[in-house]
Amino acid sequence: MLINCAVYQYGKKVADIPKPEISDYIEQSDAFVWVALRDPEPEELDEMREEFGLHELAIEDVQKGHQMPKVEEYGQTLFVVLHLLELDAEGKIQIGEVGIFVGSNYVLSIRNRSRTNFLNVRERCEREPHLLEHGAGFVLYALMDAVIDRYFPIIRALEAELENIEAKIFSGDSTTRASIEEIYMLKRKLMIVQHSVNPLHEAITRLHGGRVPHVCSPLQEYYRDLDDHLGRITHSIEGIRDMLNTAIQVNLSMISLSESAVTKKLAAWAALFAVPTMIAGVYGMNFEHMPELKWAFGYPAALTLMVVLDIGLWFYFKRAGWLGGSDQMITVKIKD
Amino acid sequence: MLINCAVYQYGKKVADIPKPEISDYIEQSDAFVWVALRDPEPEELDEMREEFGLHELAIEDVQKGHQMPKVEEYGQTLFVVLHLLELDAEGKIQIGEVGIFVGSNYVLSIRNRSRTNFLNVRERCEREPHLLEHGAGFVLYALMDAVIDRYFPIIRALEAELENIEAKIFSGDSTTRASIEEIYMLKRKLMIVQHSVNPLHEAITRLHGGRVPHVCSPLQEYYRDLDDHLGRITHSIEGIRDMLNTAIQVNLSMISLSESAVTKKLAAWAALFAVPTMIAGVYGMNFEHMPELKWAFGYPAALTLMVVLDIGLWFYFKRAGWLGGSDQMITVKIKD
Amino acid sequence: MLINCAVYQYGKKVADIPKPEISDYIEQSDAFVWVALRDPEPEELDEMREEFGLHELAIEDVQKGHQMPKVEEYGQTLFVVLHLLELDAEGKIQIGEVGIFVGSNYVLSIRNRSRTNFLNVRERCEREPHLLEHGAGFVLYALMDAVIDRYFPIIRALEAELENIEAKIFSGDSTTRASIEEIYMLKRKLMIVQHSVNPLHEAITRLHGGRVPHVCSPLQEYYRDLDDHLGRITHSIEGIRDMLNTAIQVNLSMISLSESAVTKKLAAWAALFAVPTMIAGVYGMNFEHMPELKWAFGYPAALTLMVVLDIGLWFYFKRAGWLGGSDQMITVKIKD
Amino acid sequence: MLINCAVYQYGKKVADIPKPEISDYIEQSDAFVWVALRDPEPEELDEMREEFGLHELAIEDVQKGHQMPKVEEYGQTLFVVLHLLELDAEGKIQIGEVGIFVGSNYVLSIRNRSRTNFLNVRERCEREPHLLEHGAGFVLYALMDAVIDRYFPIIRALEAELENIEAKIFSGDSTTRASIEEIYMLKRKLMIVQHSVNPLHEAITRLHGGRVPHVCSPLQEYYRDLDDHLGRITHSIEGIRDMLNTAIQVNLSMISLSESAVTKKLAAWAALFAVPTMIAGVYGMNFEHMPELKWAFGYPAALTLMVVLDIGLWFYFKRAGWLGGSDQMITVKIKD
Amino acid sequence: MLINCAVYQYGKKVADIPKPEISDYIEQSDAFVWVALRDPEPEELDEMREEFGLHELAIEDVQKGHQMPKVEEYGQTLFVVLHLLELDAEGKIQIGEVGIFVGSNYVLSIRNRSRTNFLNVRERCEREPHLLEHGAGFVLYALMDAVIDRYFPIIRALEAELENIEAKIFSGDSTTRASIEEIYMLKRKLMIVQHSVNPLHEAITRLHGGRVPHVCSPLQEYYRDLDDHLGRITHSIEGIRDMLNTAIQVNLSMISLSESAVTKKLAAWAALFAVPTMIAGVYGMNFEHMPELKWAFGYPAALTLMVVLDIGLWFYFKRAGWLGGSDQMITVKIKD
């Protein structure tokens, strides 16, 4: 679907043009054409390939989709693929793609499988004619900047998830299947973001620094700034990744600890039952000469003995933390 | 076994030729010879070595097999080894090999231990005479492209296996020997694919970018596209690998958790038995003065006490999740 | 907030000047201006941008904050971002930032979210006029040196925390939730410091060695010394990190060990109860011909048997370490 | 001990010569001397040092032994150290060493602590005079090829050990001390091979590709082939290493799983005993009014109740896999 | 404290000189001065700085201590820092430092916090005048060689500790707190050695190979030999490190295994008690019609039944290894 097809000159929009006129405007060296497509049909792509004279391998990449982010040069044409990441309602990450072809006087962006639009990019560009004057190179920068800026809220969402997981681990809620699944799912999301960011971070070095495509050369500082943004995202991902690996190990310790607590509880309660059972067993023996059996208060005395011993044991186990009390108290103290 | 032996000129097939004429055609600079062998006998290899003037070390590699994927130059001849991966009926990965010799006007492909054939490659080449005009370099590209394209379904199969394992882990089925074996076996398959892909990914950089063999130079974009494909495969492998390592750790947590659940169940049931046994013990004591023993409803009262206490305990344990109920309920809620 | 704005010439302070005169002094090549801001308002930043002619992307970085440490060149201007780390009262690490713009004859430092001030840096510079004569390059060095020097006490604090954790692990205190949380929190702090140090360590190589900004070139040894300091910090961080990972694993072993000790204790005590219960059961049988039941001392003999067996078992378990004694004794021996 | 000392010319052996004549022949540029020593005495080494004019540091390396594999140039002399690996009768890896000095017209090989001899290398060289004509460089290649070829069977032995360990893990035999020790010992052997192969793999790049020693330059393809062999060995080692690490983790899961199975068995059997004991306790109570006690078939009815309940429980536990049955059945199914 | 201060010419010692004359001799190009200090006072350092004209940053490094090993050039002066490692009586590693300043005709070594002296270095140098003739460069080599040679016995001590730990793990002694602490402490020591060796290994490449300081250039082979020594040490450290990580994991498996063994023992003994208790319970029931109760041999028959069943069970558990027997037997067999 065609979103937009316009000609810009001296940093200002000149006219919307129909698709077949694109190739005419491209030959004019002082204007540039900016075309935006969304989920295009194969025929539309074919049309674009002819109008702009694009390489068949690049067009194939756009058509097939599921490419890694990359920056490729086909002769004078720059072909950039970026991932568009969005969090859906259930917190899952949806991956769309945008392929951008940049020539010395045209930009063609083709967006696939994503609801994110680039209207604000066009607005921003039109608001800054002194930068837009740099032509296609600045449009590419603005598009990339918009895509990369949308990675930050996703990183923040993942960091929030990690904090949520940490809170669960140290509150003792971590020993359920659901918590472990959350840890795993965060790792998965992290991997998705990583696979969108890392190849782009590597590829973007081709747009600033040493030998760069002609169209980007007057905008070195701007592309380096994108590199810097990706660097920060990479660092954040590395950080979450590192802490998540630690969280997995720490959680295993917590599970072992809670297992140990269960065994202690089991042992304590077993003892609380074993004592009266043993005493009852003793007074259930059939010896002829057992003086206690004849005492008037033998029975209540036996019951009292049972209760007293159990109360004693109960306090002993409580103090030792085997009934779950003191250990949790310690935890609470530390959390406050 | 000889599969094919033909001469091509200006992108079109000219003639099938007998093997002994190969060396004659190689001397003609405007035609190229394309020969395909399958599981060749040593004598056939010797014949080829003489016709094409191949290096003995390369021929030895083909004969011995079990090489790593590689791209080597012997003077003007390019020698490429690729792994052919196939999933057999039981989901195991079978590894075949193809060795390709490329000179300025010949291509010799020797396929070993694989049922995969390259008929479609020949068809594709003959359908695109404008590309086949580039000669041996394009045939090499087409063969490599065909081999690499067949890696994708294998990667997808491994991803499906991983998803299957994840589903098992979080449904609680993961705590069996069989599940752990599946995890291990997936790791093994992953390693096989990795050993086929990684060396090739490294080697392929010699065919595009900087100084490349003469025969590949007009097809830079095409070889870079192969590199890009291998990059995507490498990323997918890294992703599966990473998640699998996490799955192993998470599964250990799940096993510990289920162990803990077993201990809780044991403890709960032990308590359910211990309470009536203790009460029975008390009323089994032989004290002379135990008023309850003389009550008309003493026995049913005692039985009722046992049952009531056990029902109480049962609900208590049920609510605490020690009988396996509430924890699974939580899991179910999260899975939906 | 403006902290300071002064002109220096030949290594000595000449005058405090009002902000609007900055641009006048910058044009004089034999003097340099040193301006320090703290948590500036956007208007102040705008003013500075105009006076010094700074790049909008760099100003944006300062305004937004939360940058990674970096060294960037915007034409002749050097832009350096450093993290200011402080331990607060609860031992948490607070991260502030300082952005430093350095031109051939000016230094502008902008400090954000940090209580640390740089008064001592100015004093040090004024005390060493022979070095301050090198101009802006030396001021940059002195500021960086002051920031990096403040990392050392934080590293020492983390090392102390690690030693504290180690002491707990090997004294047996490590098997509580609180200890595991401490381990995790140390890892988190370590990560924060790492994210402040590593990018800076990478970036600082641009200030010495090969091609360096003009303003730094006469101070090569000094910048290399900073690199060396960062190298030591990096090594310490790596060391803590490595030991902490080992500590996590060792702690898990300790937890498993203590779980095993609990099971042993449970087993030992179960046996101590089971023996008298079994004997009591035997003498509670209702056989008609049980000679012991008629003995005058049958009952005390049975009780004695119970006690004697239990004492025997108790010593047996004590010696085997199942009651917690001997294992702890061994530990104590080793710790002394 | 001197093994051999011969002069070769135009790819053919000319004569065996006594040691003192070595230095005479070295001066002749069209012949080369090939000397082989085994476990030499210090005096023999001194003699060689003088005859060939070798560097004292290299001689010291040979004398002390326990060097890493390496390729060093001392002026025009090439000094190569290789490890000779052999599996002894108990499957342990024995490490010998061979030091090779190569000049433009001599080869001196000194073998230490190894039963492996190089007779077949000499035979191979003499069988291929067209290659031996390349002189000392080819002899070096032939020696290195022989050494490296002997690494393959060791790699295969380690792979077989890994498969053996895998079979044990998934058959359930892995939960014994002996199995864990086998895993550890395989890791150790792997490390030994790795320490013999990795430094050599790094060093061998100096013998082909870019700037290479004069003596190796006409044999580029041959040295690259050695590099390729080492690459395959390195890949195999990495593979075993990777799978072994996974095996260690998987085995821990298996141990936890089998622990869980033991606990289940314990719980099941405890229940099977607890039910009759509880029923017996109930009918052991001393209430006056317990109608069942007076029934003629009360006792057999009670026994029947016990047996019936236990049979029911037994089937229940069997089906749930708590008695070890069904889980193993699943495993068996999967293994076939 | 001044240890030594002497002038050397043509490889031989000429005279001991007083400190103030140092600067005079330095100006003579055909002699060189060799000064050794130990734990110097600040004033001594100041004196040296003036006599030799050293850089203040280097002097500061020596004064503060706790530097990483490094090789730095200050103009024509080479500044080398090395760690001196010693094992004290309790097996702990003590870290001293030596800072060496090397100019074209002087060597100044400053040793701190170490009992190791360099007398033998001076002796060695004076014994080899043909090498000492190379001047300061050879003295530096000799000092570094002496320092690095002292790392080998420490590596061997750590290897011995690792073997000791392995022996404990596989003999079953590893499941105590003390063993785990030993593992951890070995890791710590390893880290210390690593932090002394790795930076030095990196730094030493500046003294041989490409562009090297003038003073080292005629001794390339000697410095490369030091690099080789450090390479061997690094390999050994990597090996110990790798095996230690494996040992930690294997030990955790062993602990889990021994925990499992405890649970089995608990289960077996519980069964041995439960059987007689159950039988006693049955015959403790109060049914009127229980024929066995009236049998003359009913009581001994019941006791016999209990004993026979327990003996049967005991053999069953013994064979299954649940009483600790057979598993240990297997282990013993494997160890021999």
CATH architecture of one domain in chain A: 2-Layer Sandwich
Largest protein-protein interface? A-C, 49 and 58 residues
Q: Care to count the β-strands of chain A?
A: 7
Assembly form of the protein: homopentamer
**With helices defined by DSSP (H or I, 4 residues minimum), what is the helix count of chain A?**
12
Shape of chain A: rod-shaped
- Bin the strand percentage of chain A: 15-25%
Report how far the terminal alpha carbons of chain A are from each other: 57 Å
Structural class computed from helices and strand pairing of chain A: alpha+beta
Rg of chain A (C-alpha, Å):
35 Å
| SSE pattern of chain A, N- to C-terminal | EEHEHHEEEEHHHHHHHHH
CATH topology descriptor of one domain in chain A: Beta Polymerase, domain 2
Q: What profile does the largest beta sheet of chain A have?
A: 7 strands, mixed
CATH top level assignment of one domain in chain A: Alpha Beta
Helix content of chain A: 55-70%
Strand order of the largest sheet of chain A: 2-1-3-7-6-5-4
State the low-pLDDT regions of chain A, or none.
Answer: 325-336
CATH H level of one domain in chain A: which superfamily? CorA soluble domain-like
Instruction: Determine the mean pLDDT of chain A.
Output: 88
Structure description:
Five copies of one chain form a homopentamer. In chain A, helix 7 packs antiparallel against helix 8, helix 7 (151-171) packs parallel to helix 9 and helix 8 packs antiparallel against helix 9. Chain A has helices at 22-26, 42-52, 56-64, 119-127, 129-132, 136-149, 151-171, 177-204, 220-283, 291-294, 298-320, 325-335; strands at 2-9, 12-16, 31-38, 70-74, 77-87, 93-103, 106-112. By secondary structure, chain A is of the alpha+beta class. Chain A has a seven-stranded mixed β-sheet with strand order 2-1-3-7-6-5-4. Among the domains of chain A are: 1-138, Beta Polymerase, domain 2; 259-320, Magnesium transport protein CorA, transmembrane region (Methane Monooxygenase Hydroxylase, Chain G, domain 1). Chains A, B, C, D, E: The chain crosses the membrane at residues 266-285, 297-317. Chains A, B, C, D, E: InterPro entries: CorA_cytoplasmic_dom, CorA_TM1_TM2, Mg/Co-transport_prot_CorA, MgTranspt_CorA/ZnTranspt_ZntB. Chains A, B, C, D, E: Its main location: membrane. Chains A, B, C, D, E: Belongs to the CorA metal ion transporter (MIT) (TC 1.A.35) family.
